[in-house]
Structure formats: structure tokens, C-alpha cells
Amino acid sequence: MSGRYRMRRHARRMRRYGLQPMTIINLGDPLPEPAAVYMFRWAWRYRSELAPLVFCLTAALAAALLHRAHPHWWPMIPAITGPAVPALIVGGRHLGLATLAERVYAATVVGSVGAWLAAATLLGPFHRPLPTIMLIGGLVLALPWWAHRRRRAKVRVERTLAVWPEIAQAVGLAGSRVMSAVVDLWGWRARFALAHGQTIQDMIAKLPAIESALGTYRGAARVHPTGDDLANRFELRVLDKDPHADAITWPGPSAGSITEPIDFGPFEDAAPARVLFLRRHGLFGGVSGSGKSGLLNVLMANLSACRDVVIWAIDLKKGMELAPWASCIDRLTTTPAEAHALLRDAVAILEARAARLAASGQRVWEPSAEMPALIIIIDEYAELADDAPDATSDADSIARRGRAVAVTLIAATQRPTQKAMGQGALRSQMDVRICCRVRERKDVDLVLGQGMLAAGWHAQTLNAPGKFLISAPEHDTPRRARAYLLTDETVSATAAVQAAFRPALDDQSRRAVEAARGTDPHGQGLGPDAGLRMSPSGALMQDRPPAAEQALWLALCVAPDDGADIAELMPAA
């Protein structure tokens, strides 16, 4: 026999013997709360929904008191509410009424209540048809209040955060507390104070559990440091809908100089994802179809608007990605041999610039229209490492020594493994890392750096082309952004407009390239001895001279017309 039937038979037997149930209250047990307490809690929980009723009752009570004590005050009410109506429409934004519809609604409520209150003060709140007008008018004016999306979202957030102590206990963050919360267009965000010993890294590790406890969809929660950068506080942002669900059209160039940061697209809070490339090398990573080409288009569109940058590019996909920008690119190569020559010439330029800086006692190359910076963009760097392995040594040299002389390297690849990036230290020299979607979790550390996955940089969860995470000195927390969209027509139009304003290499850099190619500073070839180079004394030497002799020769090539003395040439050699 089941336990349920056994309990029923036992209860019938007890009643047959005259036993009655009784309640036993121990000394330590609390008494049941009265019904008034439950009613008050219910009213407080639904205070937002009951606000129109409370407002109407308050207006009726005020009308009754005024009619009884001061009925002659009724003209003062329209005199006050009359100017308040246009004031709310014009200046309601300062009171938190963000949209015009909200301001019009508030002005309508104030005007309607003011007219009814004036009439009720003069005639009495129960004078017909004033009660009927209040009942119907209150119901009509309450409907927009009950249906307002932001109000309902705010109430939902308040009720969710009211049980945060239980949520924190369940996910292992007991002691953390809510400080404030704000509802915005895409969801809500709240500031929290952590308990002693808890850090923001603990919050990042608990994000899946927090999403489950809050009842959101996967990937909807974000954790960021607060603006005051205190270690015991953090900001939790929860999205009800994705602000990056649709493509965002490129608004135009954000930089007119390489000394200004480039805007790649908005973060989820609409702040621009700006990053500076002056004296910083960059790495773009992500699987095929994740949006790297779109990011390169945004980069090229902004660099082409800079009057102090010369752009060189390597595109081993026969120019398929960068050819539309050919009119703005000073030098575009599409074969491994050409790419090797380009990087070798770039090394010659940085050595010549270094010699010039050393001779003049300067430490950094300051870009200008007459002395522009040089940026080298390499699409699919892994192809370069496979097809032209000798070129990787020049790329490593540029990455190590190019910062001070404003020679910058920006590489894009799908998976920047040590094999794909060559055997040098190129990847470790990349200060700016932009990661689109990756297929495997371990690829996050390959693109962004060791330990970034554990720190909350989850690029494997990016779910649309163009979405990216950016790691740079000014971006040290994981924030999702989406790159601007440039259509083929926009690329063609932008390149056509900017092509006429592109700068040329400075004379010193140009002479260094000519010297590296085997010509003298005046552009004359070496004739039949093209495989050799001419030394300053006129003797022929091999095409690959020792490093010291080549540096001395480059220093002489960039020397002023009146020559250079021994003291100026010594640092170069």
C-alpha cells in the first residue's frame, strides 16, 4: 500500500478515536505575520503598477481639502499648471524624460489633473460629473503608463536585483551587493560592490552561472570595471537585445593624421572603439568570414585620409582584398618575391631614418606631410611565411626596430601560430591586437596573448561578421565592438577622393630605397654590375655587404648636400 493511502487511513482512525489536530508553538518560533503586512508588501512590490491609482486618490484628497478650507484658491491652480505644460515639453529632458513622447505624456497628465483639480476645488470632488471624469480620464491616462517599455523594464530589473543576495549566494559570490541600476535602450546595467577578497576576475569566471540565475540568454551578460577603477567594484551589463545585430554604415574618416586614433566601430554602449597606431604594430586575427577584410577596409579608409602616412601593402591573394585601394597605396605587391623586396626596402628605410636621427641627436621620427610615417599592411601573413620565408627576418627587424622611426607593421592572418608568424618574435611585438571570431577557445590566446581567455576575452562567442574584441594600451578590458561596413561603392568613392592627396616618401627614405636596390642617390643604375653595389670609394662589393658597411653607405646616401663629418657617421657604423 502506498504511503498516501496509509496516511489517510491513519487520519480516519485518529478521528474515530476523538483526537483533534492542534498547533504547538515553541518559545523560539515567530508568530505569523498579520494580513496587513502581506498587503503592504504586495502594494510595495506592485507600486509602479499602482502609481496611477495612488495619483488619482491623492488628487481627490487634495481637492477635498482645498474645497473645504480654501475654495477661492481655484484660479491659482491653472496659473501654476498652465506654464508647467510647455515647460515640460521644452525642458523635460533635464527631468529624465528622454523622448518627446514621454514629455508630451507628462505635460498631458499635468494639464488634465490641473484642470480637474481646479474644478474640484471650486465645486467639490463629488460634484457630478467630476467623479466620472476622474474614473474615465484616470484609466485612459494610465494605459500609456502601464504599457511603457522602459518603466516595465525598470520594474523587472528592480525585482531581479531585489533577490541578488540569494543569487550571489547560489553562484558563490556571497557578500556582494547592488549599489545602483540604470535601464537603457538595449538592456540594463548595475554597479556592484564586492565582498572582501573578491575581485572582478571572480565575476568573469562566474558569468555563465550569473546568466543562468538572472534568466538571460547565453552571452547576454558583460562585466566591466567601474569608472573609478576601484578593485572592489564592477559593473554588470545585461542585454535584452543585441545592439550589433545590424550592420553599421561607416560615417567617414575619424582621423586626419597618424597621430590621431582610428575609430573602427562602436562598442555595445555606443562608445567608439578608437585606437592609435603611431609607433604601434598591429595584429588582426580571426577565422575566414569573421570580418577581417571589413576591418582592413576601415583601416585603409582612415589611413588614406591621413596626410602624413605612406601606405605600403602586401596582398598575396593577387590583390583581391587591397587592390580596390591601389590608388591610395604607394606600393602594392602581390607575389612573394615582390613582398620580400618590399620588406627589404622597408628595413633600408628604417636604417636610414635611424642614422638620420642619430646624426641629429633626435630619438623619434615625428611624422609630417614632408616626412611621413610608413605603414606596411600584410594581408594573410601566414602565406608570406610559407611562400617567402626569407622575408620574415625583415618583418621581425621592422617589428623590433621600426617604432622610433615611424615604420609600422600591421599583419592580418586567420590563426597566428608560431609557424604562421615565422620563428622570430614578431607576434610579441604587436601592441594592438584585434580579434574577430575564432573557432577554438585556445585561438583566443594566440591572437590576443597568453592568458586572455582566462581573463574573460571570449572571442569564440562572437556571433556575427565584423564583431571584434580589441586589446591595446587604452583597451585593457574585454568589450565587444562591431566594425563599420564599407560597401564596394563606398571603397571606390573614398579611394578616388583621397588618391589626389596622398603624400610621397621623404627624400632620405627614397634615397635609401634606391641605394638598397643597387642605384646611386641620383637614380643611375650600376650598369653591367647590377648584382654588385658601389662603395663610397668607388670599389665594387658584393650585393649583400656586411651590416656595418651597408649602414655606413646608407648614412652617406641620406647625408645633406654639404656632406657629413666623421663624428656624424660613427653612430651609423
Q: What is the tally of beta strands? A: 18
Helical proportion? 40-55%
Strand order of the largest sheet: 10-9-11-12-8-13-14-15
- DSSP helical segment count: 19
Looking at CATH, which topology of the largest domain would you report? Rossmann fold
How far apart are the first and last residues' alpha carbons, in Å?
102 Å
The major beta sheet can be summarized as:
8 strands, mixed
| Structural class estimated from helices and strands | alpha/beta
* Anisotropy-based shape: elongated
CATH architecture of the largest domain: 3-Layer(aba) Sandwich
Average predicted local confidence, pLDDT: 84
Say which CATH homologous superfamily of the largest domain is assigned.
P-loop containing nucleotide triphosphate hydrolases
Name the poorly predicted regions. Answer: 519-547
Query: How much of the sequence is in beta strands?
Result: 5-15%
Radius of gyration: 36 Å
| Total domains | 4
CATH class category name of the largest domain: Alpha Beta
Task: Describe this entry's structure for a reader.
With 573 residues, this protein is of the alpha/beta class. The protein has 4 domains: 45-147, no CATH class; 151-239, Threonyl-tRNA Synthetase, Chain A, domain 2 (2-Layer Sandwich), CATH 3.30.980; 261-411 and 420-434 and 467-501, P-loop containing nucleotide triphosphate hydrolases (Rossmann fold, 3-Layer(aba) Sandwich); 518-569, no CATH class. The protein has 19 helices and 18 strands. Strands 10-9-11-12-8-13-14-15 form an 8-stranded mixed β-sheet, sandwiched between helices. A 4-stranded antiparallel β-sheet has the order 1-2-4-3. α4 runs antiparallel to α5 and α12 packs across α18.
